[in-house]
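Hi team,

Filling in the usual template for the complex we talked about on Friday. All components are listed, including any nucleic acid strands or ligand strings, so the model treats them as one assembly.

SUBMITTER: L.P.
PURPOSE: interface mapping
COMPONENTS: two
RESIDUES: 676
SEQUENCES:
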Amino acid sequence: MMKAIDNFLDRITMYRLVLYGLIGLVIIAMLFGFFDMLPYSPGAILFSASFLLFVSLITNGIFARVFEAPTNIESAYITALILALIVTPFQGAQDLPMLFWAAVLAMASKYILAINRKHIFNPVAIAVALTALWLNDSASWWIGTTTMMPFVVVLGLLIVRKIRHEAMVISFFIVAFLTQEIFTLTQGGNIIATIQTLILHSSLLFFAFIMLTEPFTTPPTKELRIFYGGIVGFLFSPLIHLGSFYWSPELALVTGNIFSYLVSPKLKLYLHAQEKVHYGEDIIDFIFAPTTSRTNFAPGQYMEWTLPHQDTDSRGNRRYFTVASSPTEDSIHLGIKFYPQGSSFKKALIAMDEKTPIVAGNVAGDFTLPNDPKTKLVFIAGGIGVTPFRSMIKYCIDKKEERPIVLFYANKVISEFAYTDIFEQAEKIGIKTVYALTDTHSVPKDWHGKVGRITSEMIKEEVPDFMERFFYLSGPHPMVTGYEETLREMGVPLTHIKKDFFPGYV
Amino acid sequence: MRKLLLSGIVVGLFILYGLQKQEGGQNTEIIVPQSQQQMVTSMPLSSTQGNASAPPPPTPTPAQSSGSSNPPAQQQGQYKDGSYTGSVADAYYGYVQVQATISGGRISNVTFLQYPNTHNTSIMINQQAMPYLQQEAIQAQNANVNIVSGATDTSMAFQQSLQAALSQAH
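RESULT (copied from the run log):
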């Protein structure tokens, strides 16, 4: 069951998942409205959603043109649909200004309230916070009802699974519940009733699953995200106040966003491809011309890449890719595997020449070397999942750090092995690489590496002290979970296994 | 330059609209009559306001609990006279606590000792919902009032607190 869900999630971008999910919620709400299970007519919900989409798209179009920024049309749709689910549906002409301003402010905030083209606030949260503060018109968070709850939970769990930010959401829930319960206790209220209210009648679930998880405004590492979830969870309680200033869910998120901005790396690189190195039939290593910007990321981290291109398909012009180079190198490397019938984004990547601008920003990720250089490690890479290991190993070579590392690197055919020059150099500082060919029919006669999938026997043979080691797994999702199972069967504790976030084939 | 101009226009219009709304807002205060004996549960509140720029009035939905506006006759005069304070009930944006006054064995008045009043929106919502809830409780002579939609949390907390108050009046 979980595998089927993961397979589904691997084949869809996060933006698409959220977009389809929100469309689903709007349709379900309309159905409930039709059967009088929600107090809003289907027509009112549809009108609100259409009006918000219309105003959002126009505003976004104008701002994108004037600011000459690449637009991600999906994120404009998503913003409009979230607004449709939290601002009370249209009931009369008096509601139009609120709907209008919510959409305009959400879109405008992405451009105006941005530093170095990185927007600071969750667009929806800042928009409804501003309308509440200045127009006295608040979002009602009407989606937070018992009827809609199961559907919000299903979509929410899928989103959290997709982006792997479970810890942040859990930390938010725990702190939000505790804070609200403390207020209830001091008032002599009923604790169980408060939990019920929070789950069944408040914005809590929709807020946590769909808004807190927005990737742009979340901190870059797991620890910081847990902290972020806690801050927002604390302020989420509407009874928290400073003097007569009371927080609301939207203000809680906006406050958290400021924290997130302060702790996030501000690195933004404007790059041009200088060279493309092909490995096998469908792997390309892009080497970008050196930039003057300081490349202060940790080896193994990923960045968000924006490539404006003609005829962008609905999968958009943004992707997350791990940086294959080490921060010690002058040139940034990006190793990509291409699939048949790829997206417009990947086609545009292949077609890139030295004049095409590509922007990399939002460095993030915990898949990095441990602080203690004596920690014994095993890296297991499947296919292009090797990129974070190239970054880490090249870093060790350049810094002359002799870390106890063994790399297992599996591919289908021999031509797909990338970056072997780096791994050869690494032998000098004691880093061993074990190659494995998984397609047993295409093994050359003079092959010295392993044949077949990396097994527990292979690991035991090459690293007898495997129980003392930490394992880093990177590759396609089924492979990573497969190796995780193998390691668990060998008795490796879960705390010794680190997996890379692999966003899928799109 | 164009960026500044566009940003300035949007920010300026928003500020102007807000100012104009705040000035106009003084004339559009919501006044809900305290005594609405003629009001029946199916009558939307808007009919008592007639104000185009007022926020959307909450409309009643069928009660989720087994509420009834026409209580059976045997429920009449079932309470002991006096004033009874209900429990504190969580209405999410604050707490609701009511006091029920019984005279002649009947609920003659329900007053709010506290209600969510920290956020402007909840004040607005509750100012509309509270008279409605009070009225319904007096008509029903029990705590099973209809949920006022748009004020679900307050309505449910009202039911809880009033229920607790009435349980002392037996």
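MY TAKE: The first helix of chain B runs from residue 2 to 25. Strands of chain B lie at 82-85, 89-90, 95-103, 106-114.

Thanks, L.
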